[in-house]
Amino acid sequence: AQSVTQPDIHITVSEGASLELRCNYSYGATPYLFWYVQSPGQGLQLLLKYFSGDTLVQGIKGFEAEFKRSQSSFNLRKPSVHWSDAAEYFCAVGGKAAGNKLTFGGGTRVLVKP
Amino acid sequence: DAEITQSPRHKITETGRQVTLACHQTWNHNNMFWYRQDLGHGLRLIHYSYGVQDTNKGEVSDGYSVSRSNTEDLPLTLESAASSQTSVYFCASSESSGADTQYFGPGTRLTVL
How far is A105 from chain B (nearest CA, A)? Predict the structure, then answer.
C-alpha cells in the first residue's frame, strides 16, 4: 500500500530564511508526487508535481522540490521565505498503479516569524 | 473560468440525521474525489468516481455514500450522521490520466452534535 510521511508537524522559520519540508513516500511503482499548500480556511492549491524527467521540479511561489528515488524522498524547498508562506503543506503520492488516487501525508504547518 | 464549488460551506447537524454535501465542477473532469481532513491525519479518501454511474469506496467509506448521475456533480451523503464524522470535507476533480492534478474545492466544515 502507498503511504506518505511528513516527519515535521510544525516548523517555525524567520522571514527571509530558507525552508525545507521533508516528505518520504512508499509506492510500489513509478510514483507521481505532489506538493499542495493550504492557507487557513482554504482548499488545497498545487505547488508543484513530479511525474517524470528532471528530478528537480520548479513550482509556483518560488518553491522547488527534488525527487530522490534512492531515498524515497520528495523534499520541498524555498530559498527565502515570505510571511505569506505561512500555511500548511501537504505531500501526496499517486500514480497509474493507484488509479490516479492520491495518498496524502499528515501535513506540515509552517509559521513565519517577522 | 472553470471551478469546483462545494455547498454548504458550514453545516451543523444532529446525530442520526441524514446530511448531503454538494460538489459541483465545471472542469468537465471525469474523476471526482471526496476527502475528509482531520488534525494529524492529513486528507483521507472517502469515495471516488471515474465517470458517470461509477463510484468506488476509499480508505474511510463507512457511513458515507455517493452517486454520480452526471459529469459535474458528486454529492456525498452521510446516511446517519455520527459525532465521529465531524470534520472538514473536500471535493476534488481531475482528468483521467495518472499524472493529472487534482483541483480542490474550498471545503465544507461539518459539525455533528
Answer: 6
Closest CA to A87 of A12, A37, A51: A37
Q: What is the pLDDT of residues B34-66, one digit of tens each?
A: 999 998 788 999 999 999 999 999 999 999 999
Interface test with A, best of B54, B93, B104 (most A CBs within 10 A): B104
What pLDDT, on a 0 to 100 scale, did the predictor assign at position A53? 86
Cell numbers found for residue B47: 469515495
pLDDT at B42: 86
pLDDT score at A2: 87
Nearest alpha carbon to residue B30 among B18, B48, B13, B6: B48
> Could you report the per-residue pLDDT of A28-38, keeping only the tens digit for each?
888 899 999 99
CB B14 within 8 A of CB B112: yes
Phi, psi of A66 (to 5 degrees): -120, 125
> How many CB contacts within 8 angstroms connect chain A with chain B?
59
Residues of chain B positioned with their CB less than 8 A from the CB of A108 = none
- Say whether the peptide bond before residue B8 is cis (omega within 30 degrees of 0): yes
CB contact under 8 A, A49 and B98: no
Is there a contact between A87 and A36 (Cβ–Cβ < 8 Å)? Answer: no
Report chain B residues whose CB lies below 8 A from the CB of A90. Answer: 42-43
